[in-house]
Amino acid sequence: MKKLLPVFAFAFVVAAVSVAPASAAYPTKPVEMTITFKPGGAADISGRTVAKAAEKVFGQPIVAVNRPGAGGTIGFAYVKTAPNDGYKIGWLSASILTGTTMGKLPYDYRAWDYVSRLVFEGTAIVVRADSPYKSLPELVKAAKSKTLKIGSAGSGSFTRLTASALSQKAGFKFRHVPLGKRRVPSLLGGEVDAISVHPPEVLALHKAGKVRMLAVSFPKRHPAYPKVPLFSEHGWDVGFYQFRGLHVPKGTPKEAVQALHKAFSAAAKDPKVLATAEKRGFLVSYMGPDKFPAFVAQQNALIKKVVVSLGLDKKKKKMKK
Amino acid sequence: MTEESKKIRLRVGRLVVPILLVGFYVWYGSLILELPQGPGEEGPLGPSFIPWLWASLLIVLTLVEIATGNLGARRDEERVVIERKSALDALILCLLLAGFAVLMQYVGFSAAVIAFLAVSFWWSGIRSWKIIIPYLVIFAFVVNYVFHHVLKVPLPQDWLF
Amino acid sequence: MNLLVEGIVQALAWKPFLFAVLGSFMGIIFAAIPGLTVSMGIILLLPFTFHMASVTSMSLLVGVFVGGMTGGSISAILLNIPGNPAAIVTSLDGHPLARKGRAGVALGVAFFSSFLGGLFSLVCLVTIAPQLADFALKFGAPELASLVLLGLCLICGFAQTSMSKALISGILGLSFSTVGMDPIDSIPRFTFSVVQIQQGVSFLPVMIGLFAVPEIISGMRGSAVSLPDFSTRLRDLLPSPGTLAGLWKTLAQSSLIGTTIGLLPGTGSAVAAVLSYNTAQRRSPEPESFGKGKLEGVSAPEAANSAMTGGAMIPMLTLGIPGDPVTAVMLGALTIQGLAPGPLLFESHGGFVFSIFGSFFIALFLTIVIALLGIRLFVQVLRVPPGLLFPSIAVFCVIGAFALQNSFFDVFLMIGFGLLGYFMQKFDYPIMPLLLAIILGPVFEKNARMSLILSDGDPGIFFRKPISLTFLALALVYLVSVFLKRTSLFRKPGSA
After folding, report:
1. Given C140, C184, C333, which is nearest A178 (Cβ)?
2. For chain C, is the Cβ count within 10 Å smaller at the N or the C terminus?
3. Does C484 touch chain B (CB under 8 A)?
4. Neighbours of C393 (CB within 10 A)
5. What's the pLDDT tens digit per position in A12-69?
6. DSSP line for C339-406
7. Cross-chain residue pair B41–A63, CB shorter than 8 Å
8. Rounded to a whole number, what is the largest CA-CA distance in chain A?
């Protein structure tokens, strides 16, 4: 241990010197954007596309870093505890609301500052092509007389909450199957009657006629699947949608938030982002820091209602702060 | 080491490991008790079912191991020899690695890697500073450049490189 | 056939070809440097492909995938540190061969087995991909649970001195695999209310720790046995036609197993390697010489893990369902290019699909050429004094564990399991079962519990499905045969 001491002493001197002096204009160095899901997934693709476009206005690189695990929890917790100097930002999704309401994170949704909403992603109810249900009302009618098996990405996942909210609105009960990664093969293999899923995962199969998207929970019809009706057209609007956007650690300076807002609002108009959105089946819908926090609060209230009605908030052991 | 002391140590090994395993079983079991028991929210098997299955298999196998290792067929075949020195080496290396990982978060990757390697080289018997210093500088620079700047691994950075 | 030729020609254009070379090279490097893994390589290279043409980006990623499956055998054989999970089995016989001075032969056989296994799976991919994809859909939750249970039973095959020790090691792994978020009810288990532990025990950091740390310790303290020199001349590396002919049965069955396992989501290359090793061992006239340096023991897992690559790409390309973590990233790369893999990809972008096949074909050739030539370089690295080499490897292990999920938790996981692995080896507890259990435990738990949800609590679901019943029967037969063999060993002590 004696030999180590000088080394550690040296290291701490290094640490002390390396704290750079605070400079005037933000941003002076690259910003790191945490993506809470794995590389190549939906969150990763939309996040990286938007970040790339925002860089042009922002003037500094926006480096996307994946911190996946436990349904986004790991990444959200990272952003929560990161320094609030404006150089650590996060690509959030509605999963942050499910994670906080169900106690997977030891704080509620107000633990972060919200900058802007960038995109909406739909949630679709999908059946196999040979299924007897041709439309959502047919499925609902059948579900009222017998218990159907409907799969989702997991117990507390956004897709599950959408399916459950639909069942509450339309008045049926179903057997939920938390299929996880095997959601699409499981549907194709005939293990479940329907799945609740984000459209990009089944878009290719839908176009090939292997599966049928019955309806999608979305603010408006999407050009990638224009013939698929919305939940709201059947009168069963669940009110909350999968959204993605930008958040920062609590107490991040106003100038930083404004600079990010400026860069990302420009990115929302970038032709490359719009083209990717059309192909990938998401919807670009920008909302700035003036309105976004209120929107998050409103979505949180809706999601919390479903979570509480399903009893998902009770049994979970709370995480330590 | 004399034959006799070796034998004693073997017996210690045969007893200590099973005792540790029983200890692990008790700990693991007490943690399972904190989980919701019985059927789960989603299906007939709850979150504690599979852990209980593994825990019961573990205790059964540990008892088998105690029986065969100390009384049964392998009683005289046991060839476990653990030297105090090599066990210490393992602990030191792991502490060094953990120190490296912790240090990196405070002083950045390059400084931490230099500190870690310098200590490790010294410890593993490379004492010539003429070799160590150039190797350290080049290694820290190249690795940081390739992984951080080219491959974009978000290693913590500092003022070096 | 014409389409395939066109595809190959397309992939031979200078840019895709250049990136195929780069990909295969990087795949080999990532797999051969202890601590770095193919998964890490693919994850790190993915962002670069966003700005490339689609054919080019796929040649890069396919190159890494194919190269990585071969490269893992280099460090497994020479250093006894497997470069990727698929190569953990390769080290069982590969390293003993190297100790005997036959490293050249072992490497040659590994490279050629990889090549032939990959070629087999490519043929399947080109000819019967849609049919195989439909076959894969027959594997539902009960089938996967039974298959994984069979895989777990094979842990017995890794017993060295005592069966109970191998099984304890496996059960410890299964217990560790229950840490983190419950896969069905999403309840955090054994997390001590720490958010980071919810991500659970991921197997790649564990693998790096278990296999690399003990070797680093002995390497740094000068207790490592240096390998006898071996010739790296091409003539001595290439296995003789006779050797390869003697291995053809092993190669054929392993390629078949590898391709099939690749088709099934969530099982992975380690299972393919273990199953084929075990099959080769059981079918061999001298099963007891496995684990002491037998060429079949190198050939079987290497053919299987390369065959897995083609298998895993089948559901990815035909249905848009990734078969393993690497193809999941590839799927992302394709969608970012605006190509949606699925049944229509063959019709709408048939030329492009065949160019992927073409780059796969080219990557196979490039990999074997680069591996054969590069081995000289690698042997040079082995000449670096161990006091310098092993601390540097330790740094790569830390980076490798970190970069998978950019998480320091994974780094500490790697270190902790490294220490555990070291003491387990000292007390004669084999570490292979521990790792396999950590890979398979969550898959088993998830699918077993899922099956019971699907059947409304009726355990008969495991026995009514023919595929599931077959696996369960195989597992039972295996366990009985092991038990009979062991009890006969007990009667004549000394023969173990």
Report:
1. C184
2. N
3. no
4. 25
5. 444 444 444 444 588 888 899 999 998 888 888 899 999 999 999 998 999 999 999 8
6. ---STTHHHHTHHHHHHHHHHHHHHHHHHHHHHHHHHHHHHHHHTS-HHHHHHHHHHHHHHHHHHHHT
7. no
8. 76
Q: What is the pTM of this model?
A: 0.89
- Distance set, CA C115 to CA C110, C326, C368 (Å): 9, 19, 7
The amino acid that residue C435 corresponds to is: L
The answer to whether the CB atoms of B77 and C496 lie below 8 A apart is yes
Coil vs helix vs strand at A175:
strand
Task: Answer whether residue C493 shows pLDDT above 70.
Answer: no
C207 belongs to a structural domain: yes
Measured in residues, chain B has a length of 161
- Cα gap C136→A185, rounded to integer Å: 9
How many independent structural domains does chain C possess?
1
Tokens 């026995």 belong to C463
CB–CB of B108 and A312 under 8 A? no
Tokens of C111: 């490279």
For B154, the closest of A14, A65, A155 (CB atoms) is A65
Task: Specify the DSSP class assigned to residue A319.
Answer: P
Q: Where are the alpha helices (DSSP H) in B34-128?
A: 49-70, 84-107, 109-123
ipTM of the complex: 0.90
Sign of the dihedral defined by the CA atoms of residues A93, A94, A100, A104, in that order? negative
Residues 6 or more apart in contact with residue A224 via CB below 8 angstroms:
A199, A203, A278, A279, A280, A281
Strand partners, A32: A63, A88
DSSP code string of C198-251: GG---HHHHHHHHHHHHHHHHHHTT-SPPPPP----HHHHSPPHHHHHHTHHHH
Domain that holds residue C56: 2-487
As given in the structure block, the two tokens for residue C428 are 């004669």
Give the contacts of A203 (CB within 8 A, at least 6 positions apart).
A224, A225, A281, C340, C342
Question: In sequence order, what are the beta bridge partners of A178?
Answer: A152
* pLDDT computed for residue A29 by the predictor: 87
* Cβ atoms of residues C47 and A64 within 8 Å: yes
Distance CA C72, CA C79 (A): 11
Compute the nearest-CA separation of B3 from chain C (Å): 18
Q: C59 lies in a domain?
A: yes
- The rounded distance, in Å, linking the Cα atoms of B19 and B30 is 17
Q: Is the pLDDT of residue B68 over 80?
A: no
Q: How many Å is the Cα radius of gyration of chain B?
A: 24
Chain C residues 91-130 with a CB less than 8 Å from chain B: none
